[in-house]
Amino acid sequence: MEFAELIKTSRVESVVLAGAGLPPARGTLCITSHHLLLSSRPGGAGAAATVELWLLIRNVDAVEKRLCGSSGTITLRCKDLRVLQLEIPGMEECLNVASSIEALSSVDSLMMMYPFFYRPQGLRLEDGWHLFPLERFFQCIAAQTNQWRLSAVNKDFSTCPTYPPALIVPAAVDDGALRKAARFRHGGRFPVLSYYHRKNGTVMLRSGQPLTGPNRKRCPEDELLLAAALAQAARGFVVDTRSLQAAKQARMGGGGTEPKSAYPRWKRLHRPLERGRPLQESFVRLVDACNDASLSMDRWLSRLESSRWLSHVKAALSTACLAAQCLEREEACVLVHGAEGTDTTLLVTALAQLILDPSCRTLAGFQGLLEREWIQAGHPFHVRCARSAYSHARLKQEAPLFLLFLDCVWQLGRQFPRSLEFGERLLLALFDSAYASSYGTFLGNNEKER
Amino acid sequence: MEFAELIKTPRVDNVVLHRPFYPAVEGTLCLTGHHLILSSRRQDDAEELWLLHSNIDSIEKRFVGSLGTIIIKCKDLRIIQLDIPGMEECLNIASSIEALSTLDSVTLMYPFFYRPMFEVVEDGWRSFLPEQEFELLSSLTDEWRLSCINKEFSVCPSYPAVVIVPKSIDDEALRKVAVFRHGSRFPVLSYYHKKNGMVMMRSSQPLTGTNGRRCKEDEKLINATLRAGKRGYIIDTRSLNVAQQARAKGGGFEQEAHYPQWRRIHKSIERFNILQESLIKLVEACNDQSHNMDRWLSKLEASNWLTHIKEILTAACLAAQCIDREGASVLVHGTEGTDSTLQVTSLAQIILDPRCRTIRGFESLVVREWLQAGHPFQQRCAQSAYSNSKQKWEAPVFLLFLDCVWQILRQFPCSFEFNEHFLIMLFEHAYASQFGTFLGNNENERSKLKLQQKTMSLWSWVNRPQELNKYKNPLFEANSLVIWPSVAPQSLQLWEGVFLRWNRSSKFLDEAYEEMVTLIEYNKQLKAKVNALRRQLAELETDDRMQENA
C-alpha cells in the first residue's frame, strides 16, 4: 500500500489555520504521508515562508468537517489535546483533505509509522536505544548484595512474551524454576525485581496475578521464588491493585491471589486502582470539562469531580506511598501486581521509586526509570495510546495509564519543586511522544515486538 | 476599667503549646491586657507565641482528668492548642481570654497602647492624603474639583472629609444629590483613565422608591462625566430582580427615562451576609482531614467561594472594558455602595492602571477605595470563619478582594511589584493588628477616635526597606499594560497561601522561592558585571585608538 493512494489532494492554497491560542494564519496546506504542513508568507510573496503548522498526522484523534457554501472548515482534535481548525476554500478540496487525513491517521501498521522514515540530521540512529541497559542497573545491585542474578531465561521471549530479554531474579532460583513459575502467572509474568532499596536491603518486585483459579492451584517454584526474594527481611506485603472483590472474582476466570497458606510470610493489601475503559472515560470527561470556558464555577467543579480523574491521581499516589512505606519504614519487601501486571502495577512501582530513590529524580535516572518500568517492562503503549480523549472511533484497549503516571510525577514536582531535575516541559513532551512521535521509543507493546 | 480585672490568672507554668509545623513545646503562659504569650526555657526564654487577643475568633475547653486543654481558633485561620495543668487554672485562663478577646470598645484595642520599637521615618497617616491624589489628577485634567462639603462629615457620615466631584457641580447641588442616595453616598470620582480621559465613579443606590422619584442634580452630576454624544454605563452589582425589589424599601435604580444617556448593566455580586457563610464552609472543607477527593471537591463547590471570585472579577473586567475598550465612563453601585461597589472599582483599577500594581500604588488604592471610601472594616472584620457567636455585620469582603488580586497576580506574575505575602499580611492586619489603620468603619469614626494621633499607621511600618523587602516580587517588570485576567472557571484557583496555609507546610515551596530570589539577584549582579566590563573594554579601545593616532 502506498501512502500516495491515501492522499486525495496533496496541496491547497489559501487555507486559514486557527486554534490553540494562536492568531489565525493563512497559507498553503500540504499533506504528506506523515505530516500536515501549513506555510505562510507573512512578508508577502518573495519573503521567507514561515511554517505555521508541522503536525504529525498520527497525532490526529478526530476529524470533523463543516461545509458552508463553497468552503469548508475541518476541525482537527489532536491526541496532545490541541484543537485546530482549517478553513479550506472549495468544497471538493475540503472533503478530499478531510478524507485524506482520516485515512492517513487510521493507518495501524507499525512499520508504516513515521519513526521508520524519520532521518534527522546530526543524530546517529543507534544513540539512545542502548543508553539504559539492564546490565548496568544490575551492576549497582550486585555491588550491594549477591542475593540476585541476571537471568537470560527470556532471551528469545519464549518464557514471557511481554518481558524483556534480561531479568533480575533471586540468585537461589534457577532458570528451570523460573519457567515453571512463568506458567503460574498471568501472561507468563513471573515475579521479577523492580527495585532494590539500598538503605535496608529490601526489594520491590512486580508480576502478573497468580493463576490459582477456582481449584486453588499452587506452584512450588513461584513460592520458592518469593521466599528467596524475602531473604533476610522479616516479611513481605503483596500490594494488589484490584479490590478484594475483583481479586476473588478473578479466581473464576483462572486468576486469583496468593493464598496465605502458600505464602505465609506475605501479607496481602488491596488498593484498587482504576484502569481500562473507566480510566479512559475519566480522561474524556476531564478534557471535556476543561475545554468549556463558558461553564459556571459550580458546573466546572462538579464536572471535575464527576470525571474522577483527581481521585485516580490520589489513589495512585497513595498506593505508591504505601509501597514505599513498606520498604522504607516497615523494612518489608513488596510484591506489586494487579491482573495482567502491565498497567497499574507499573504505575505503582515507578512512582514508588520516585518517592524512595533520589537518583530516579535526576534527568538520567528518570529516563532510566521510564525505560525499565514502562518500556522494557512491557506496558502495551501501542494499544494504550492508539487513541486519546477526542476520538470518536470505537475504542479497544486504550487507557491513559502513562498520562496518569506523568500527572502523578507532576504532582510530586509541584510539592517538592527542588527535588526533580526535570520540569513540566519534559513531562508534556513525554505525554505527546507516547501518542505520536518522530521517534521509535514508544512504538510497539513490548521488547519482543520491538 | 482595668485590664487586670479581666485577667483571672496572669501566669501559668508548664503549659504545653501545640501549633502547626512545630513540635510541641513546654513553657510559661502569660496573659497581658492585649496578648497571650508563651515563653519557653529553650533558648533564653524564647517567645514561642505572641498572640493578640483580638486575633482570637473562638476558644474551646476540654478536660481529661486534671489536665485542661484550650483550643484557640484564630482569625488568621491558625488553630493552636494549649495544655494547661490544673483545672482551675485552665478555666481561669479560658474565661480571661474570652473576656479579653471580646472587648467592645475600640479605644481598648491594642493599637492605642502600642509603642513602636522602630524608628518612624514616614508617618503612614500622612502618606496617602486625598489632596495628594487630587494633585496628580489636576495635572491630567481640569474637569474636577476637590469639595470640602463633607469636612464635618455632616453631609455623608461614611465618606471622607474631602471628595472629588465634577467642577461644574457646586456644593449646594451636592447636598441635594446626597439626599437622593442611600446613606448620602452621592457619586464621586473613583478613577481617571489617562489613556482616554474616561472616568469611573461610584455611589450607592438612588432612592427612587415606588414613586419613581428623581433628582435633577444627580442626573446633572453624572452626565457631567459624559463626552458630547457619548453614552455611559451604570454597573449595578445587584441582579435586575433585586434592584427592582429595592424600590419597595425606598431604594431602586436609575430609570432610563431620567438617565437616557446611560446604559444600565446588572452584574450580580453576592451580598455581604452570604459571604461569611461561604468563608465558614470553605475553611471547614480545608480542615477536613478525611482525605477523600470527592468530598473535598464537592465541599469546595458547595462553599461557593470560587463562584464569588468569578462574579467579582467578571464585574471588574466589565467595568474596565467599558472604560478602556468602549471608551465610556462608568458609574458603579450596589445597595449601600460600601461592599461589592468597592470590590469592583478597586479591581478595575488593578486591571487598568499599572500604578496600582506597584507597592505604593496598591497601598494608595487600599487607602482610597477601601479605607477612605468607608468600607465598614470594624463591622466586617469583627469575626472570621471560626467564630461561634451570632454574626450580623461580619463578611470577608476585603479578603475576597485580596483573593481576586491574587488570582490576577497568579495569571500575570511579572506585572505586580508586590508578592503574595504582601496580600496575606494585609488580610491579617485587617482582622487583628497593632496598628490603627484598619480600626473604625470610616474616616468620621477614625477622626473622632483620633487614630492619627493615638495610634501608629500600618504603612509607617511596612514601608521601611527592611520590611518591604519581604514583600517585593522578584519577577516584577514594570509595564504600562492593561491586563485582562481570564475569568474562566478553569483559570481560578483556591488561594492555598491563605486557606491551606496551616494544613500543609510550605517549607519546600518557600525554599524554591528563596532559590528563585537568589537566582534573579545573581543574574542581576552578573548583568551589572558584564556592563562594567563592557565599559572597561570600550575605554581600553578608545585609549588604544588614541595611542595609535598619537
From TrEMBL, chain B:
A GO term, aspect molecular function: protein phosphatase binding
Coiled coil feature spans: 509-550
Xref: InterPro entries: Myotubularin (IPR030564), Myotubularin-like_Pase_dom (IPR010569), PH-GRAM_MTMR6-9 (IPR048994), PH-like_dom_sf (IPR011993), Prot-tyrosine_phosphatase-like (IPR029021)
GO (cellular component) term, any one: endoplasmic reticulum
Membrane topology value: Peripheral membrane protein
Membrane found in the keyword field: yes
Subcellular location per the Swiss-Prot or TrEMBL entry: Cell projection, Ruffle membrane; Cytoplasm, Perinuclear region; Endoplasmic reticulum
Superkingdom as given in the UniProt entry: Eukaryota
UniProt keyword terms in alphabetical order: Acetylation, Cell membrane, Cell projection, Coiled coil, Cytoplasm, Endoplasmic reticulum, Membrane
Keyword DNA-binding: no
PANTHER family: MYOTUBULARIN-RELATED, MYOTUBULARIN-RELATED PROTEIN 9
Family membership: Belongs to the protein-tyrosine phosphatase family. Non-receptor class myotubularin subfamily.
Name recorded for this polypeptide: Myotubularin-related protein 9
